[in-house]
């Protein structure tokens, strides 16, 4: 997780961040135009075309140069790409714990264990109906991706000013709540 936050989101490695951001944004924008089946098929065809062309290119080069380098993807073909049982158990246990926590919290909210919390949840859902009327899910994902790659670097550059204005806003909110 620290790789994602330190390297990608703060643009420490510009090339990697650019590729991840560009690929993610391209995927989401493609999904606004085509179905997920079409987008998946096109991405698979592009990747397959690139690897087939590279394999043919390397085969022709080996024939011309009369070298015996072997398969160009030999290094990757020899790698183990399977998931270990421990990894699967670790992530499934984590997912199960989160799922159970979510179900327990939803049960608590829907069965009104605490009236104030259930009312807060109702207000949140009511606000989300307006958000849903303004944006569809893909638009929110696109905005989230752009924000995820923009906000950390903007905050890093303008930390002092942002902290100053957030402090002022917090003080105003506290004053309003106090009255």
Automatic annotation (TrEMBL):
Protein's UniProt keywords contain NADP: no
Keywords linked to the UniProt accession: Endoplasmic reticulum, Membrane, Transmembrane, Transmembrane helix
InterPro entries, alphabetized: Reticulon, RTN1-4
GO biological process: brain development; endoplasmic reticulum tubular network formation; neuron differentiation
Location(s), subcellular: Endoplasmic reticulum membrane
Cross-referenced Gene3D superfamilies: 1.20.5.2480
PANTHER family membership: RETICULON-4, RETICULON-LIKE PROTEIN
Protein name: Reticulon
Organism: Oncorhynchus mykiss
């Amino acid at each position: 997780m620290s790789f994602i936050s330190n390297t990608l989101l703060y643009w420490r490695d510009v090339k990697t961040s650019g590729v991840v951001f560009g690929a993610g944004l391209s995927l989401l924008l493609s999904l606004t135009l085509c179905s997920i089946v079409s987008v998946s098929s096109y991405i698979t065809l592009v990747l397959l075309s690139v690897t087939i062309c590279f394999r043919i290119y390397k085969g022709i080069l080996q024939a011309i140069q009369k070298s015996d380098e072997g398969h160009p993807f030999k290094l990757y073909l020899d790698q183990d790409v399977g998931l270990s049982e421990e990894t699967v158990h670790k992530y499934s246990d984590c997912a199960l714990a989160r799922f159970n926590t979510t179900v327990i919290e939803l049960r608590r909210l829907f069965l009104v264990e605490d009236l104030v919390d259930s009312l807060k949840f109702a207000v949140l859902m009511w606000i989300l109906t307006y958000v849903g009327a303004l944006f569809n899910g893909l638009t929110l994902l696109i905005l989230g991706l752009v924000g995820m790659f923009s906000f950390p670097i903007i905050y890093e550059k303008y930390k002092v000013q942002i902290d100053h204005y957030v402090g002022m806003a917090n003080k105003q909110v506290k004053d309003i709540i106090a009255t």
